[in-house]
C-alpha cells in the first residue's frame, strides 16, 4: 500500500505546496468484522482489488455477528403471534425479545413503544400519520427527503385533509443563528412537533439535540429525530436526550434484512390512525365496526419481518457491547484523516453546513473541481475499486443551499472501514487531478459508465445484465 506520506507528496505535485502528512490515527483495522470485507472486484486494467466500501451511509454491510445470528435462528422460523405450534411460540418470543433489544439500544423510557418498520422512511411516514389532527409540524430544509416529504401537505398526498400545516424553516449561517430561528418560530405559533435530523446524510453535521429539545419542549412541542445516520454511529438515548421519537434503519445499522424501527412516546401511537389495515392490528372486526389494537400491534398489520427484527436486534446488541467511546474514536479518526487529505488537494471542496458545528459523524461530501460527480464516482469504482455515492443524496434543498445543485460526491465510513480505504480514495483523487481518468467514460441513460467495459461479472446468478440494470437505476431522477 502506498503510504499516507506518499499520498501527500502526490497532493503536493497537484497543489504546488508542501503538506505534512498527518500522524497515523486509529482506524488502521476494522472496529468490527463485516461480511464481504475481503470481496475483490475487477478493474478496467484487467486487475482486481479488494473492494473499499465508502458508501456506508447509503447501506452498511452486515456484521458477521448478524449473519451468524440469522443462520442460528432460521431453522426456528415460523408464523408469529397467532400460532399454537412450538416453533410459532419460539418465533414470537424471538420477535418480541428483538423489539425489547431495539428499544434498549436507543434508551427507550419505560412507557415508550417500539414499532418494527421497514426503514427510517417507513417510520417517519408512520409518525406523520399519528400526529393529532390539526397539529402543526416544523421541519428544517437540511433534511433528507424521508424527513421532509412526509410532513409536506400536498393536494392528494398521503396526509391531505388532516388539517396539518408543515412549516419548512430555512437554515441560518451558523448553528447559533439556526437555534435562534427555531426558538423564534416556535414562539410565533403553537407546534405539535419539531422533526429534524440527528446527523446530516450529506455532511454528518447536526444541531445539538440537548439545546433543540430544551427549546422545543419549552414551547410545548415534541421532538422527533431522523436517526438514520446518528444511531449507528453514536450512542443515543431517548431518556437521556429527552427526544420524544427516533426513527432508524437496519440497513444503515449493519443489519440489511429489511427492518427498521420507530421508538417513542406511546400516546400518539396508541390512538393514531393505524399505519396499515389488516390482520394482527385489530382486536375485533365486524361489518359495522373495527376495534384496533394499541401500539405496537396497531401499526404492524400482516406477518411481520421476524428475521429482519432479529437481525436489527443483534446489530444493536453488538454495537452496544463495544467499549465506551470506541465507535466514536474509530470513526472520528477516519473522518479526520479523510477531511485533511481532501483539503490538501487543489480544487477539492468539502461541503459544510455550519462553521460552528461540532462532532460530525463519518459522512463527508465534496466536489472535485468542475468534474461531474458521476464521472468521479465511476472513475473511483472502475479504476480503483472504491465505492462512493454521487448525486444529491435525497436532500435536494440542502445541496442547493451548499451550492451543489448538480450534485456532489459522498464518502462515508463505518465499523468495517480502515485507514487503507481512506488512503486509497485520497490517492485515487490525487491521481485523477494529476493525470485524469485513464479509461474512457460515457453517459448512458443518465449513468456514467466505462465505454466498452470488458470487466468480467462476478459469478452470481442474476448479474447477466449488470450494466443495463445499473443504467436504468441511476437516471437523473434517481439520484440518492
TrEMBL record:
Cofactors: pyridoxal 5'-phosphate
Keyword entries, A-Z: Aminotransferase, Pyridoxal phosphate, Transferase
Catalyses which reaction(s): (sulfur carrier)-H + L-cysteine = (sulfur carrier)-SH + L-alanine
Highest taxon of the lineage: Bacteria
Domain Aminotransferase class V: 53-425
Pfam families: Aminotran_5
One GO MF term attached to the UniProt entry: transaminase activity
Family: Belongs to the class-V pyridoxal-phosphate-dependent aminotransferase family. Csd subfamily.
Name under which the protein is recorded: Aminotransferase class V-fold PLP-dependent enzyme
Species of the source: Cellulomonas avistercoris
